[in-house]
Automatic annotation (TrEMBL):
GO terms for molecular function: catalytic activity. Residues 879-891 have a biased composition (Gly residues). This is SLH domain-containing protein. Residues 1354-1417, 1418-1481, 1482-1531 form the SLH domain. PROSITE patterns: SLH. Gene3D superfamilies: 1.50.10.20, 2.170.130.30. InterPro entries: Cobalamin_Transport (IPR051588), Prenyltrans (IPR001330), SLH_dom (IPR001119), Terpenoid_cyclase/PrenylTrfase (IPR008930), Transcobalamin-like_C (IPR027954). It holds the Pfam family DUF4430. Keywords: Repeat. SUPFAM superfamilies: Terpenoid cyclases/Protein prenyltransferases (SSF48239). Residues 871-891 are annotated as: Disordered. CDD domains: ISOPREN_C2_like.
Amino acid sequence: MKKLLTSKACALGLALLLVISVLGTALVPAGQVRAQAQNSAVQEETSVTEATYDAGAAPVDAKVATQAASVTDAIYKAKQYVLANGSLSEWNAMSIARSGTAVPDSYRTGLESTLKAANGTFTKVTDYARISLAVTAIGRDATNFGGYNLIEKIYNFGQMTKQGVNGPIYSLLALDSGQYKVPDDALWTQAKLLKEILSKQNADGGFIFFGTQSDPDITAMTLNALSLHKDDPDVQAAGTRAVNWLSQAQKADGGYNHSSESTSQAIIGLTSMGIDPAGPEFTKAGGNLVDHLLSFALPDGSFRHLVGSGANGMATEQALQALVAYDLYLKGETFYHFTQPGSQKPGVQAVVSIEGPQAPIAAGTIHAATAVQGLEKLAQAKNISLEIKDSSMGKYVKMIDGVSEALYGGYDGWMFAVSKDGHWKQPDVGAGDYLLQPSEKVLFYYGEYGVTNFIQSVSVTPEHPEAGKKFFVTVLKEVSDWDGSKVVTHTVPAADVQVSVAGQTVTADAEGVATFPAGVAGGTHTLEITGYQKDAVPSVVRHTSKLAVSPKQASISIEGPQGLIGQGVGLGYTALDALEQLADSQGIPLEITNSSGMGKYVTSIGEVKEKLYGPYDGWMFAVYKDGRWTQPDVGAADYKLAEADQLLFYYGDFSETQLVNSVIVTPAVPESGQAFSVKVTKDVTQWTDATGTTVSTVPAAEVQVSIGDDRVTTNAEGIASFTSGKAAGTHTLLVTGYREGAVPTLVRTATPLIIKAASTTAPVASTATISVVGDSSRGTILSSRTMTLNGGDTPYSLLVRQLGGQVIAEGSGSNLYVSSIAGLSEFDLGPLSGWMYSVNGIFPKVSAGAYTLSSGDVVAWRYTTNGGVDLNQPTDGSGTTGGAGGAGGGTAGAITSDNTLSVNQVGQTTTVTNEANKMTAAEAAAISKTLAANKVSITQEVTPGAAAALKDNANEVQLQVPAGAVGGNVKISIQEQNASRPELVSGLYEFTPDGTKFAKPVDLSFVIPVTTDYPGNLTVAWLDKTTNRWIPVPSTLDAKTGIMTGKITHFTAYAVIDRSKAEPEAEKLKKDIAATAKAITAAGEISDWQAIGLVRSGNSLPASYLSGVKAQLAENQGEFRKVTDYERLAMAISAAGGNPLNIDGYNLIEKIYNNENMIKQGTNGPIFALIALDSGNYSIPANAQWTKERLVQWILEQQSKDGGFPLTSGEADNVDITAMAVTALSVHAEQAAVKNAIDKAINWLSKQQLENGGFKLSGEENSESVAQVIIALSAAGAGPGDARFVKAKGGLLSNLATYRQTDGGYAHAAADKASNGLATEQALLALTAYDRFLNGQTKLYSFTEIPAASGSTAVVFADEKQISAWALQSVQKAFDQKLMQGVSSDSLVFAPKQHITRAQFAALLLRLTNNTPAPASSAPVFSDVKAGAWYYGDVLKAKELGIIDGVSKTAFHPNGTISRQDMAVMIYRAFKLEAPVDAQSFKDESKISSYASAAVHAVSDLGYMTGFDGAFDPSAPVTREMAAVVAVRLP
């Protein structure tokens, strides 16, 4: 190690350089814009071609000023529109940045994620160019963004001209925009790009894309690329000809080709060349280019593609770019010149602070171009004295507010730093040369280099303390040393700093931890860290942050004067706290003023300042309570949040801007094309001396109601009529009161509008007639009766209501099948005998459970002996959906009201009506809320001679006892029990006297919330207390109302249950899983599917598994022939806690979504690709060969008409493939087409199931097919207990059990007597999927939450939420194995993000190698390792064993942060590793120090430490959670 200089030496060598050059030398711009008068004169005399290279500012006259104001307004609206409409495009980000507005930081992080997901690789050069332009525009370096050099990707792109001239144009723009250097030997230098571009110019002066026709868009785009090369005579001539062509090609209306985009491109291109797009040469009869573009604008800020059309994303994107380009032109700038001097840049909004040696001096938000301008403006605004001096090294800040340099007699003085991402950095240019970025923070502080340090991080444990409860504050600081050639930065605990909060000040201990044992009061407090010292510079720069104690969450909307500015969830103690937190997280500029008279209040949001239109308008806030918006009596800073508050911050005037009270649509749910009206009311607040504040609700007249492109103004009654209706679907209904040049009259309100499809059937009537006639010997079973219809009644529901338990059927809806009525069953009189039904004399071609009856319908049930011939029904079977030939086939569902078989022994027991109109989630939630507040308790005496109805006040339970049902007087009691069982949908009710039997069946009804997608699985059942099994009774369910009725014959405990969740042997299931897992691990080598099964069932996975996978990848160099290999490995690695995005440098996810062999294995490839990509919620690039959307669509296209899926097109449908398809599609079931496909596939699987509950594949019964169906049903939410899969002789689970062997494994075929590896692994997956389904856990293949390995103590740390998901299991193991402990003696705190020190890691290695510390009496070795320190013996022993060295001969730097390469060296020495022979190089190999190279490659080769994306990042600090991960990997 090189000897470090002292801090005084550092100060002499570096401090002067940093302090004296604070301002730098570039205070005067390189060139000045011409005077406006000169420009005006030139403009009047020159032609368009002569003016091409006159880039002076445009003349300013009344017309130009008016147009500029319109442009400014349009820019503001367009920015608000794109910011409020989700993620930004690269072009929008450029426009927002070039307009001087802060681009949300979420855009940068999202762009980095996109790059990482694509592994920095794209197929089009325009992708690299577009992203590079955006990166440069937001102030980042495109040569190193997210670890990728995008610029090199451009100039060495092999297929530059594949996209025509587009590629060279945007590549040249990208290279020039940031003045990036291009090597002479590059494939494409600027000169080569220019030559290629110029070769595409036509003789007429225009440029071509493809073909021979000049194109205005391409010609304009070319001007952008040529603009920075105008000194080249060839470029100058080409530019002049192109500008002339654009003028000649312009249409009379002022545009090109009728689209706004061509006009936008022309404006951008012309302004880049210094040409006024509103000048004489570009003004035609219909106006100039700018006027023409503005004619496409819509009130909400968006732009149309064509006049008369609606908002268009691309049109808005290009229009915003053009408007910003024109605005920049008026200021003497061009759009794509991103590196112009700060003096030519418009001021951006930034926060400037001044920190003195003993206290803060001033802070404020200012607009400035450079850091020093910001300082000067702040000093002027705050009336602070400021002295700037000249020296031989340039200008520097000598004094601020009377505090001069060398105050303490040393090298102390004024310094500056900047921050945008939360960390301060000292730029390598002076403050005079440093160009500010929007929303950047600038700090001028008094200190001394090497003495005054920055706070690196402040973490609070727990993150949000409870009021009055103990919490800890851990503070780390950055320290810098000079190693002889460069500055080396370390992170160390900030010992002895003062931590202040809520009036309490605590000094941090040696570990940088300040403990507040009694906590503080609830609220949002300022947490202040200081290092003030008497007669000396501060040890740290003052740092403040917010601390929320007992915070609440609130949903917040921010409504600007012309549109939505932002919305989301904020966290805080007060309304203002929550707004600040939301604004900070979304990058929304926010200004708050603290007035002595008014307290804190909002003065600006999103750069919209108070008094924009007049002296009384500004930012206001409201809270949604009791169904309406109210304005609290206190300000936002004093309004204490309640949990889940809804807040509204809006711009307006108290007397002019009102809040919406209600929006009422009539009819409530219009049909497609049906006229409807919208009535809007508003709350008007008035104040008088007599009455004080009063609120009245009145019609909202003259406001705008918008639905898509349709906009209607309300009349005097507040009504807007939409006479043409709207298309079916869910629309957004917007109510606004925007005005030009004034505050809104009404705060914008958005509500959903549902338009249903037009009715195709007549309204449901009040009555229908039904009759039932058997064969010739039975005759009439039910004479003709007229019945009152309920909504959604079917021929089957009428039949059941009349004959109840005499009807035997299975299935529901379109799959319902009636097999017997009044004892007369199918096949009783021959193979073609059975029941059929007609309506109005016609035999429908749908099931009796799917035909909705109408007014006056006549239903006739008839028994046929010969397939319908005797009923004059066609013999093709088309009408036999009610009986013979209908869906179903088993008799497992044939039960009566006195049934004693359990739910897993019978099939369908419930008839569902209104399944297509099932209650909404909101309706179900309302029912659940009502039932939760109700407790059923009923007692009533029933007599034999009279009917009786027993029900509670909430109608939760109702018992209808017909006359003659009881033999004597009976006092009936119904009592709701306390019960918690996963299958319960209703409460559990005890009916007494227990065992009472009725002479005739009794109707028992419940009201339940219907939330399942499979309501046929709900049934009324009684609990057999001896066997703990549920016994179902024949039931009917109205899915719309939630009324469920069962026929019962005796008293016991009853409930409505979901049969798919009823597992009476749950403990046995877990034992079976454990035995199967044991059988697999005992067999030796673990397959990938077995690994998934073991982890997902909560069992341990051998540590050798991942090592074996890595070896397999290395052996194959990450390349496999089959896509299913990548899919299987990606899922197994993810399940095992690895990262398939980077497993030893291989990105398996990318190998899946860009696989050219996706469909070579038939349906298998796409099915498991979708499962794999969904398993970890991976981000898939939009330009991937196989996006999730494409995979879903492709799979759907393979489905046969009957619902099954084949392996390859043209083959027969396959049980296994169909089940796998259901599993894959289940994640996307919210899509209607997908849900329909899943339902069809499940019904097809039910039809293929054998009577014993099993399945055949290729003619052979096998366990694997059963396992796949269990996995599928569990994934789809139906569960293997679904009624459709219970056949006459068994169900899925009972069938799978027949394959079980004594060793815990499973056989392939029933006749086999030995376990089969493939069958066993699939059985484990199936049982695990079912167990997770029963317990409400994530799906089998959803790996976002990997369970801890069995045997772990599963310790819970107080700061566990701060531990990364990928590290949690390792942290727990390290704790269990006593390798690492918490950082506090008072509470279990791990501090995962705290950097581990050199001493801590030395001690950890001693524990791992079973070495004991040296005795306390040992002689010291290092001057900074003192006897008595906790690490004294550890460091001495590690030194003795050769594990560590000092940073010098006498110093160890025990509290210094350890880097990744130094960690590798210590591991290498501790375990005596050997350097690998053929080590694979890292991308950042040159950054790895020579002393660490062998160690880095050794630990990487063994998998102890890994890099990311091919890089090792050797100098990065190691956190405690990182150390835990490495520790548990070590032998």
